[in-house]
Each structure stands twice: as structure tokens, then as C-alpha cells.
Amino acid sequence: EIHTNEKEVTEKEVTLHLLPGEQLLCEASTVLKYVQEDSCQRGIYGKLVCTDFKIAFLGDDESALDSDETQFKNKIIGENDITLHCVDQIYGVFDEKKKTLFGQLKKYPEKLIIHCKDLRVFHFCLRYTKEEEVKRIVSGIVHHTLATKRLKRLFLFSYATAVHSNTPTNPKNHTVMFDTLEDWCWELERTKGSMKYKAVSVNEGYKVCERLPAYFVVPAPLPEESVSRFQGHGIPIWCWSYHNGCALLKMSALPKEQDDGILQTHKNFLDGIYRVIHRPPYEIVKTEDLSSNFLSLPDIQTAYSKFKQLFLIDNSTEFWDTDIKWFSLLESSSWLDIIRRCLKKAIEVIECLDAQNTSVLLVEENASDLCCLVSSLVQVMMDPHCRTRAGFQSLVQKEWVAGGHCFLDRCNHLRQSDKEEVPVFLLFLDCVWQLVHQHPPAFEFTETYLTVLSDSLYIPIFSTFFFNSPHQKEMNLGREGQDAHSTPLHLLTVWDWSVQFESRAQALLQNPLYVEKPKLDKGQRKGTHLKHQRQLSLPLTQSKSSPKRGFFREETDHLIKNLLGKRISKLINYSDELQDSFREFYDSWHSKPADYHGLLLPHIEGPEIRVWAQRYLRWIPEAQILGGGAVAMTSRLVGMMEEVRSLQEKINERHHHQTALPAEAPSLLRSSARLSSLFPFALLQRHSSKPVLPTSGWKALGDEEDLARREDEFVDLGEV
């Protein structure tokens, strides 16, 4: 439950609600907030404030937000609120020239532009604000968002200290946190891996390695003293077991040494480790070195930096000016290619586990970035439990939080190093979105769930994404308060969605099209039933490419091949033997009906990897389709489901009055004609009045006759 501090700052009818522990730092009155889609010509007046948690604009034109239509409202972050950690860049406009703001300012801008990490763009005019207030608010915002911070000064600790609550986790939330030995033993039993692997407590108290969790799983014959020899480096750590006995393992590489004696010691140690995991009952193990033959972190960082610029649009004019070259800019960013490479690498690992009955050992320098990404994708594709909400959340806890992914550094929450800021977790969510988009009935959660999860990376009242390791979290909690009688801090977990959303809004995180695993009668054949399930859900699936047509479909448009084919061919650069093996496995799976409760593979051909429109385009009104898009199809299907449900109720009334029926679908989905394709984030956005093709576009294309002669050169790609 979110508490509201009694302290309130009031101007006219507008009230600033402060969270417990939140303090007002500076404010400015008579600030004009521009309307983005109106080329910065109109706006609303109000007060701009900065606290130690957020930047907030308090306008007096917020009556529309109280409409009953706006059910998807965050209880912590308002529409005009920006958490300090969500600020990406700040620009000032001086004499109509836009300049980046940082450090100590000698001159103060007449306009302030804030680019956010969730891709919102805010414009504030300061011409009518008092000079002293301009200095205070601009200096305050620049300092509190861009200056280097200390961990203990994060609002996370202020909030936890002020709340003084030791509220247990929501009992309805079945997320496994993987912070106890019992959690790991439970996961071993669930995946039938307990015969070959064991949970160990050798790192309890983090006396062996601060990078590893207190508890983890290793091969059963491995001596515990081996774990501590090189501080956890060179040790195969268990991630997951497949039903055929194969396992997915990860290892942090031993540090590179120049000394021949040390190198020989390392080699002897690794030889001993490999002998353990290659002996029966263990399957053959294939080593996959992600540091040498896969993506690099700078690749990901560079690609996303280019990619996000496509969506940080200052106004409608800028949007339409870039529209004509949008696909070229998208391709040059390489972000979709990186997603494709990640999915392809996961499928290669799956082929080893499933088709070759071979265990896979992922190796990386610290096994905390690309190892987390690939191992998580493999489990989402192979384990239907990870496609439920509780299972997916447990997966994130296991592979990312307990696995030691450096969220603090990778999200640059402390602003200590821009070079360390790499959106690895966001890349993972984008890859999962591709799967959700291609196989909707296989997932219990929606794309909206993934979008709000990505937003939660920047909300510093949840501990989930604000530490580099479990050790760092425990050390900072343990030192809070020297008084022996003081109550330990209770930090919230992001998985309790009631903190951010009312129950009606939470319904939009649950997929009404999810096909639950059927409960089979003893005499019923499983294969027949699954085929029937597939027939029921055919309208929801994407068209499959025939394996006879090779890696590219023959009917793929010539232009798409020209745009995407050359770049893809560079990425698919492995030996002919591996290519043939991969192709056979990939095409064989896609030639059969999908089992939503078994192995699930994505299409990775050029046009199948798409832009996650809901996350990246939701703040751009011009990108909306009013009454259309995926939400319109979902709305129709939900309507059909409710009709079936109603008929089922009538049947049940005649037979024993049974009432155990599925939960009702979100009511907001029932009126698709009034919804935007970017629902639920763009429900009230204004529709753009700009032409479909901008004036500059017509000039570039020539006159109508010339356009007609060249019409074959252009195709409607639909969704990217």
C-alpha cells in the first residue's frame, strides 16, 4: 500500500503529493509546458518542482486525467512525473539553439527539454518565470539527475526508512526469490535436476565470492573446496535442466594471465572440472564462449544509442521530416539485428539440448551479462513455466538478480560511468516481446506487462533493479542504523504490482488469450488434445514459412530482401555444417503445429523481427492507429470469449449449477473503436492532423506521374 506524506505543496488547485521520505528541493512558478505534437506553439501553465525522487509538473489543466477512461494509471508516477533515474539527457535552448546541459551553468536557458529513458520528451518554457526561480530549478534538476551519486543517498533508502514497514510479500504472488537454499532445492526438484546437481551453501555470508549469490547449484561430484579456489571463477554453475537430462550451465572465465606457471595451474584446474562434468551420468558438454564469438557490450550500447533517437521526437515537424528515411535509420541502428542474433544464439543452444542431447556450458568473463540473457531466453523458449507470470518473475530473480547482473552499473543509476551503461536487460525484454508477439496464446502475461516492467527499472522504491549483486544489497541493508534495536529495512520488490496499479489496471497485465495447460483424463491421448488446442487458436498465430523454402521465404518482397538481406547475411556467419544443422532443426520445428506448453521457437527471418511499438512509439501521437492495431484484434477476440463464457454459464446452470469460470477480461478492451493501437498508454492522445506523407517527402519523390512510374519501388511494410 502506498502511503502519502501529510506534507503537501499547494498552488491554486494543484497539489504535489509526496511519498514517505520524499523532500521538496526546488520549484519554479509560471512555467509553460508545451504540447509535443503542436510544434511547441501551445501549452499549459503550472509549477515545475524537483524533489529527491522526481521532477513533477503541476498544471491546472488535468481534469481529463480524472476521466473514468484512464484506468491504467500508475499510483506512484503521474503522467507529468519523471523519476530522477529516468532522465536520460537535458537540453537547454539559448537563442533558438539547443545545447546539452551538464555541470555548473554560467548561463540559463529560456527553454528546458528533458529526454527520458522511457522515451518521453518534455518541453518547458521558462521565459515567464522569475530569473531566480529559473536558476534554482534548472541548477537543481541538472545536479540531482546528472551528478554522480552515492548508493546510500538513493531515494530507495529514504523511502524504506520513512515507511518503517515489514510487510510480507503479497500472498498471491508466488514468485520464487532464490535467496534461500530451499528455493534452489525447489527449482532442482521442479526441473528433475536433483539427481545430478546439488545446492551448496559454501558462499553463505559471501565468504568465497561477493559476486555470486549466497546459495547456488553445482554438479553433485564437485568438491566444495574447488568453488573457493579461484573465488568462483572456472566453476560450472547450474541454470536449468531439460526433461531429457541435459542441463544448461554457466561459468565465469578464469582471469587472463601472462605468467606460464599460473596459466598451467588454471589449465590443470579446468581439466579437473571438465573431467567431473564429462563423466557419466553427465551428458557430453558443449562449451559456448559468449565473450569471443557473440555480441560485445559496446555493440549493444552503440546500437541502442542510435535506435532510441528514432523515438525521442521533439515535435510533429521533426517526426514527419524523419519519416521518409525512417526505415533506413532503423536498419543503420542494427538494434533489430542484435535481437535476431540473440534469438538465434538461444535457438542454437536449444538445438544442442533438445536435438543433440548435449549439455551446454555458457562462458563469459563474469557470467553476469550475456550469460543471463542467453540462459533466460533458452528457458523461456523451452520451459512453459517461465511463460507464466510467476514463472517469468522467478526466472528474472534467478538468472538476473541472484545471478549478479550489475543493474546499478548497467542502468547507470549512480551516474558514475556512461561506458558501463548497457541496456542488456532491456534487450532481453525486447527478445521476449518478439516471442509474445509471435505466439500470444503461449504467454500468461501481455506486452503491457513487459512495458511496465521496463519502466520499473527507473523507479527507486523497488530494490529489484538497484543493486549489482545480492551481496551489495545485504551489506547496505545491514549497515543501516547502528542501533542494535533498530528494525532492519524492508525494501519493496517490483513483483508486488499492487504498489503501482489498482486491480483493474493489473488486469491488463494478464493475457486473456493465454491457453492454459489442459487437464487430461487418464484415457485421453495427449497428442490429440494438443492438436485440438492448436486448432482453437489458429486465428491467433502468425503464418508459418515452409521449410522447403529455406531460411528466407520465397514470397518475401524483393525490397525487404534488399533492405534487410545483406545485413542478415553478415550476421549469419557460421560454418556450413552448423548452418545446415541449425536450418534443419529450425525448419523442422516451424513445419509442425506449435505446442504452447512445450518447446517454442520464434521466427527470425528479416521481416519477422519487429519494433516493439507499444514501448518505443507510445508517446508519439502520429504513430497511433485509432481503433486499430493489435488491440482491435484482441478486443474482438475477448468479445468472442465473453460470448462463449456466457453460453457456458447457461449450460452450467442446467448441469449442477457449476460456477468455476475463467476471470472476466479487462473491460477497457471492449470498445476497440475508441482505443489506440498503442493502448493502454495512448488512450487519450490527440490524433495528428498532419498528412500521411510530409511535404518534404513529396518534394523528394517528385510529381505524381513520377511517383506512379516508381510505385513498384515502395511497399507498405506494415508493422516493422
Automatic annotation (TrEMBL):
The keyword GTP-binding does not apply. GO terms for biological process: phosphatidylinositol dephosphorylation. Residues 525-534 have a biased composition (Basic residues). Pfam families: 3-PAP, Myotub-related. InterPro entries: MTMR12-like_C, MTMR12_PTP, Myotubularin, Myotubularin-like_Pase_dom, PH-like_dom_sf, Prot-tyrosine_phosphatase-like. Coiled coil: none annotated. It is found in: Cytoplasm, Myofibril, Sarcomere; Sarcoplasmic reticulum. Residues 178-616 form the Myotubularin phosphatase domain. Keywords: Cytoplasm, Sarcoplasmic reticulum. PROSITE patterns: PPASE_MYOTUBULARIN (PS51339). Its main location: cytoplasm. Residues 535-545 have a biased composition (Polar residues). Residues 522-548 are annotated as: Disordered. One of its GO terms (cellular component) is sarcomere. It comes from the Eukaryota. Acts as an adapter for the myotubularin-related phosphatases. Regulates phosphatase MTM1 protein stability and possibly its intracellular location. By stabilizing MTM1 protein levels, required for skeletal muscle maintenance but not for myogenesis. Heterodimer with lipid phosphatase MTM1. Heterodimer with lipid phosphatase MTMR2. Belongs to the protein-tyrosine phosphatase family. Non-receptor class myotubularin subfamily. This is Myotubularin-related protein 12. It comes from Myotis brandtii (Brandt's bat). The lineage of its organism: Eukaryota, Metazoa, Chordata, Craniata, Vertebrata.
